[in-house]
Design goal:
alpha/beta, six-stranded parallel sheet, 13 helices, globular
């Protein structure tokens, strides 16, 4: 009888791609995926270890499956990803129920780990984080219409608050040939929306080709038959050039939705956080982007309570948000990450950081409400994702909605199915959801 396994994937889209690669390798080796760890021969937990809340979620998941193992309802436990990489010297000592650990550079050894634990053995593998990105096939898990396309691994930015470069290593681009081959394969399997991801996609190609190649890459992806939308995550504000802006503006397949993490706007805070550029450059960039890219939706991420943020700096951030009217914003309280420079800097306590984050979201609420209302009476393209049997409506996303982050479009459909691009007349909005009907 074939051995069964459960896969729990936590954290960011880049982690999900690694999970999909492990799923492919295990499937090819004859292991059978089961939806529940209860009763499986082993469970794979692909963890995030970026901030405290992610670490807590990862540990809670490990402890939950450990209880199944203690009760004899699960065979073995394999832990992979950022948490195991970050705490490779202590994770098995702290949680002895773990049978195997793999670092972020060792996903391709998952079958070796599975073979070992199903034989009652332990396994441990941590390859260097400086190696080239593994070119491993994957089983796409995100549905019939969209998929992530990872174009690089690691990060060179070394922001003072961030542990990613210490966990994932330095920036390594995949070759354009390999990226395009994967994009073509995704399109051939019916994927209409390709979401280009890396810790910093604007740096793509600089290490391999000595120049910024994101604009060229996007242009070539857009020429692949079947690709209808290209979405870009994440673009760092100091790396934009005219070639990239022109490509985004002129290429109809690149959705006019840009995820540009700025974290703050105050010059002193940006400098102490080792962010390249300053507040004036961010303001100028946003102004340029809006002028040159009609209908642009900007998403950003912000951190409240960063070291050096007093009332004046926080007020500057709030005033900027009132002026910039950013359509999508994710706000997080500062979390001092061990091993990072920012963790040693004076900062407000977590409760105050959370209070400031809440205030920013209150400030953003009417801006986002106005943005949603601007769609009423318009007919827009919607990528249909599924049919909601309970509500009897189709559910999809507009160009302004990135999956698992933003809102949705619920609509009455007549001639559509999952994976179709549908013209929808928007008739109302409520709680971040657009409602409408197929415009035939």
């Amino acid at each position: 009888m074939k051995k069964t396994f459960a896969l729990i994937s936590l954290g960011c889209p880049k982690n999900l791609v690694n999970s999909e690669q492990m799923l492919y390798l295990l499937n090819e080796a004859g292991y059978v995926l089961t939806p529940d760890p209860d009763g499986a021969d082993f469970a794979v937990i692909n963890t995030c270890g970026f901030i405290d809340s992610a670490k807590t979620e990862a540990i809670d998941n490990i402890l939950q499956v450990a209880e199944l193992k203690k009760a004899g309802r699960l065979g073995s436990i394999i832990v992979t990803g950022c948490l195991s990489e970050r705490y490779q010297d202590s994770i098995q000592e702290e949680i002895p129920e773990i049978d195997a650990v793999l670092g972020v550079g060792s996903y391709d050894k998952i079958v070796d780990a599975a073979d070992a634990v199903t034989k009652g053995q332990h396994y441990r593998r941590f390859d260097p984080d400086s190696v080239s990105v593994d070119e491993v096939s994957r089983i796409v898990s995100t549905g019939p219409s969209w998929a992530y396309l990872r174009i690089a691994e690691g990060c060179n930015n070394f922001c003072s608050f961030c542990a990613i470069p210490y966990i994932r290593g330095r920036y390594r681009s995949r070759s354009m040939e390999n990226v395009l081959a994967e994009a073509k394969e995704l399109a051939e399997h019916g994927i209409k929306e390709i979401i280009v991801i890396a810790q910093d996609i604007t740096l793509y190609g600089t290490d391999l080709y000595g120049k910024h190649c994101l604009a060229e890459l996007c242009h070539k992806i857009s020429e692949i038959p079947g690709v209808e939308w290209i979405r870009l995550h994440y673009l760092y504000p100091d790396q934009f050039d005219d070639e990239l802006i022109d490509e985004i503006a002129s290429n109809d397949k690149i959705v006019k939705y840009l995820d540009i993490p700025i974290q703050h706007i105050n010059n002193a805070i940006l400098k102490s956080m080792n962010r390249r550029g300053d507040g004036d450059q961010i303001r100028a960039l946003f102004k340029t982007l809006r002028e040159r890219i009609p209908g642009l939706v900007i998403r950003t991420s912000l951190i409240a309570g960063l070291p050096g943020e007093g009332e004046a700096e926080f007020e500057e951030l709030c005033e900027f948000l009132k002026e910039a009217k950013i359509e999508r914003a994710g706000v997080f309280p500062f979390s001092p990450e061990e091993g990072t420079p920012a963790a040693k800097m004076p900062h407000v306590d977590y409760e105050e950081a959370q209070r400031r984050a809440n205030l920013i979201m209150e400030l953003q609420a009417p801006i986002m409400d106005d943005f949603y209302r601007s769609f009423i009476g318009k007919t827009i393209d919607v990528l249909c994702e599924y049919f909601d049997e309970e509500e009897q409506v189709f559910v999809g996303r507009s160009y302004a909605d990135s999956p698992d982050i933003d809102g949705q479009v619920c609509f009455e459909g007549y001639h559509c199915k999952e994976g179709d691009m549908v013209k929808v007349l928007i008739t109302s909005t409520e709680d971040g959801i657009l409602y409408g009907e197929e415009n035939v």
